[in-house]
Amino acid sequence: MPLTPEQQAEVERLRDETQATRRATVPALEEILYQALPVLDHGFVRIIDYMGDDAAVVQAARVSYGRGTKRVQEDRGLIRYLLRHRHTTPFEMCEIKLHVKLPIFVARQWIRHRTANVNEYSGRYSIMDREFYIPAPEHLAAQSRSNRQGRGNLLEGEEAAEVLELLKRDAAQSYADYQSMLNETDSGEIIDPGRKGLARELARMNLPVNFYTQWYWKTDLHNLLHFLSLRADPHAQYEIRAYAEAMLEAAKRWVPLTFEAYEDYIAGGAQLSRQGLEVTRRLLAGEQVEQEDSGLSPREWRELMGLLGRGQS
Amino acid sequence: MPLTPEQQAEVERLRDETQATRRATVPALEEILYQALPVLDHGFVRIIDYMGDDAAVVQAARVSYGRGTKRVQEDRGLIRYLLRHRHTTPFEMCEIKLHVKLPIFVARQWIRHRTANVNEYSGRYSIMDREFYIPAPEHLAAQSRSNRQGRGNLLEGEEAAEVLELLKRDAAQSYADYQSMLNETDSGEIIDPGRKGLARELARMNLPVNFYTQWYWKTDLHNLLHFLSLRADPHAQYEIRAYAEAMLEAAKRWVPLTFEAYEDYIAGGAQLSRQGLEVTRRLLAGEQVEQEDSGLSPREWRELMGLLGRGQS
Amino acid sequence: MPLTPEQQAEVERLRDETQATRRATVPALEEILYQALPVLDHGFVRIIDYMGDDAAVVQAARVSYGRGTKRVQEDRGLIRYLLRHRHTTPFEMCEIKLHVKLPIFVARQWIRHRTANVNEYSGRYSIMDREFYIPAPEHLAAQSRSNRQGRGNLLEGEEAAEVLELLKRDAAQSYADYQSMLNETDSGEIIDPGRKGLARELARMNLPVNFYTQWYWKTDLHNLLHFLSLRADPHAQYEIRAYAEAMLEAAKRWVPLTFEAYEDYIAGGAQLSRQGLEVTRRLLAGEQVEQEDSGLSPREWRELMGLLGRGQS
Amino acid sequence: MPLTPEQQAEVERLRDETQATRRATVPALEEILYQALPVLDHGFVRIIDYMGDDAAVVQAARVSYGRGTKRVQEDRGLIRYLLRHRHTTPFEMCEIKLHVKLPIFVARQWIRHRTANVNEYSGRYSIMDREFYIPAPEHLAAQSRSNRQGRGNLLEGEEAAEVLELLKRDAAQSYADYQSMLNETDSGEIIDPGRKGLARELARMNLPVNFYTQWYWKTDLHNLLHFLSLRADPHAQYEIRAYAEAMLEAAKRWVPLTFEAYEDYIAGGAQLSRQGLEVTRRLLAGEQVEQEDSGLSPREWRELMGLLGRGQS
């Protein structure tokens, strides 16, 4: 379970309080506010705060004095037009803030998105928790042979068992030695009064990158969608994709019209190259086209045929 | 008056609606939400939305599961510590969104702050309003003689009258010709059916930079304070300072503890140089120091003596 | 002519000096370094400096100890792979710096690209030149009827002549009054010693947005390509497109492999929506599809048919 | 030694090649271009490329047609003025690119500086090297008692020996198990043909954060100075400070006038608060001031007295 009973109680206290506001409010998102949406074995995403809604996108695009909404159909049309034509600035007018608990190696991928605000739990200042990520057996994949950056078939039997064993053993050993160097027990008591204890900022260097860290993370809707389009993609590493998928659900509650447009124009669409477009035109004109005379590399040809539903053609 | 009756009615409609929310809420800021705070002769700042409060700064700094607040004194201490030691990231966890009406030349200074989101009224798409800024007589200053980038004494009498006359006449003429080129009246009617009317994106090039534009502008608390520290400063041009001053009032309502710390550590403080610090130490040690042996330029010396309350010394 | 003889002499002096460097160097770009590439009636783009080349993209992508280049074919393949798959960070490792002279209304569109560095000529500090943009007759377009943000047919005959006349007259009048308020002639002499002269930061508010300003502007290759994809696009206003086109030529000299990939995968390609992709698949499968059962709006249908070379179908 | 002979040979090849350029060039920085400046036990900083020099700051501030330099004294004065008055944009006109090898925990602090470009070695795609950071005995500090985020006295004797032993043992074990899970030896040979080998992106999660990674990192001069002001500060963790110190040396070679101003106005100066300034004025006026009636907290009082050279007063 990702939260301790004390943490869960704090969350419940927050959820019990309600204030009156004149601001744009989204009941479907308020429903899950502050709750820990579980991700991986010990991680979570919690929606802490948000600013704006679908109508706020419209309001900003129109630089209007009132709320964006005239009629929902009209707002929907404008939102779809904006997203289709890459008029991205109105989507920056909505903002969302998350509390995330995630393995360090996921955090290192995530932080590459620079247009965001971050406050991370400090291992210089505080003691790291004894929590680390161990993949579920169904995610224990071998190195892909066709794609140097990716996963292939699952490990099985003895090999899988040994990998899990090694990961657990090394994490446990690293943490035990972390405590020993700190000279403090789990409950914060001094182990050996004759020792000084290594500085926290040094001792933490012994912990592997599958240990969990936490941060507050805040970004605008445009950059959230950009994050999701890269990290909910099948090419993303499974572990960060698991976070992106939890965030997709939150986005759908928050801005349903924008989310629908995102699915139609970004996530569900595809970019064709100049040559790919030309091949498509020739095919539609009834021409027989082969990879060799397509201007596409074999790999691009395969990808295009996949997109166009021409499988092995 | 900056708002038309129709616009004012839209504002009132927004102010009349109240929703329940679980989010952090600031009653003192809600009081003025959506209202036009007047600036210059036709401009305004309207607070449209906000995210977070003083406690949200603390919450993020502690990466906590509950609200930031423990006790107000403790929160105040942490906020002051963070600001004093340039731990700026927790202040990025609060966000504010404004609707601003401002002269183009002010907008051109304002937009230099890049860590912000902007949606501006489009002169390509819409017809610009007939509204332009004319300085009040008490702001009609001559070029400073001592400072190439600044204002000196006020213009008076005939010279002042003529300047105001020229500014008004040219703005009126430019706008009349703008309409004439568009071939449209104020109320959007075609003037001469035999003409095509110049494209809006071209006709607007005839308007001087004292015409008003509008935008939605959104930034985080850290960047808001940075904006204010530069633009509410006496070295800023008066016209943008007028906007910064309206925003200071809003910031004070929004995050009173952060605002107090900002006044103590940023706005009301001063940066001493290495040499300035050395001079201060020598003076405190009872030494007689002159500019010539201070390591400071005459101008830096004057500035330092001013800071230290030593006037003409 | 965009440069005065004195300015031209300064440029020539710079071009005559050559230093030895160990850095990556691009002879084709060095050829035009510092020269004013003319744009519009008085504007220009000057390439002032650059960092990196195609090989530097490869070098960063591989985090290598030596130069990127192994063999040109291999570098080309990697660059195309990176651009196709949106691995944009290696393109940020090249940087370019420009000196640009441009009308204020173009500068206002340009500055919306925030990931760039800018130093603009200051109208607070210096006197603005008497230079303004007047469109050539072949760019004097009427407002489009089908597209609220765009141009339609050209103005002709008397209407065109009158528009040009108004633009010139108002610009001349505004500038004459600017000087009069400053109480300074072109050559910087005081006009009337009995007057103080209005502060520069105030007087400049009388100038229309077709007056020229100047700035130094610097960005990385990824953001340059993003700028070009939006501003060299037919939907961009002609005047900023004219600058983008001059910059395309410079980009082609600078990073020919990246530029080729940009043309194939970004500028010359197209994004299909989920529905657009589905329609394409159905058409390729021989199905008869009409707009009504396509899931596309009439406008999106028209755009898709255009892309697929099916004109009026 | 941080570089292998093959890597060293690549560096030498780069250093041996010289091209002619019309760009601003800095011989003192060219001298050390591409060389590995050693940091910590296995890390380094290599200067890969740069754009601009002190004169380029001046050139941009003046938006000039020629080189910035008129006379060195004049340039020096302007650079000092710009830095003193927080006119930071001209410093953004210079750019520098580094290749850095650094422990992951240092990389995690470094990456928080968002206005920079980064390409990191990929543990998804490539096998991580067997290189990890072990502190030198003179940096093996205990947790500070007075400051929760810092170091106190050095560990000694048996405790120090055991800490070093644990760090080495756990790093070696983690790497051995990393290889075992990958099913590959150091030289890339399959260990057990009957096994599949865990995907690289998963196996690397076993490595502690003292393992070395590498990246290309590029930023502008303003942001470099900001980085240095925070990371070369005594409050920064020693390990990142070691990198900042190597970068200070490079900055001094690159832009000596800017660097001198940085030392005088930023690194060597101090920010006084409103209350601190008031206390200083009262002391200079001969008044006796105590902490209790100073408006300062005990801690702020101590810091101010330290700054003013009043030690224990």
TrEMBL record, chains A, B, C, D:
UniProt KW keywords: FAD, Flavoprotein, Methyltransferase, NADP, Nucleotide biosynthesis, Transferase
Catalytic activity: dUMP + (6R)-5,10-methylene-5,6,7,8-tetrahydrofolate + NADPH + H(+) = dTMP + (6S)-5,6,7,8-tetrahydrofolate + NADP(+)
Swiss-Prot/TrEMBL GO biological process terms: methylation
Cofactor field: FAD
UniProt keyword annotation of Flavoprotein present: yes
EC number(s) stated in the UniProt entry for this protein: 2.1.1.148
Superkingdom field: Bacteria
Catalytic residues in the record: 231 (involved in ionization of n3 of dump, leading to its activation)
Pathway per the UniProt entry: Pyrimidine metabolism; dTTP biosynthesis
Binding site for FAD: 89, 112-114, 120, 220-222, 226
Cofactor comment: Binds 4 FAD per tetramer. Each FAD binding site is formed by three monomers.
InterPro entries, A to Z: Thymidylate_synthase_ThyX (IPR003669), Thymidylate_synthase_ThyX_sf (IPR036098)
Quaternary structure annotation from Swiss-Prot or TrEMBL: Homotetramer.
Name listed for the protein in its UniProt record: Flavin-dependent thymidylate synthase
Organism: Aquibaculum arenosum
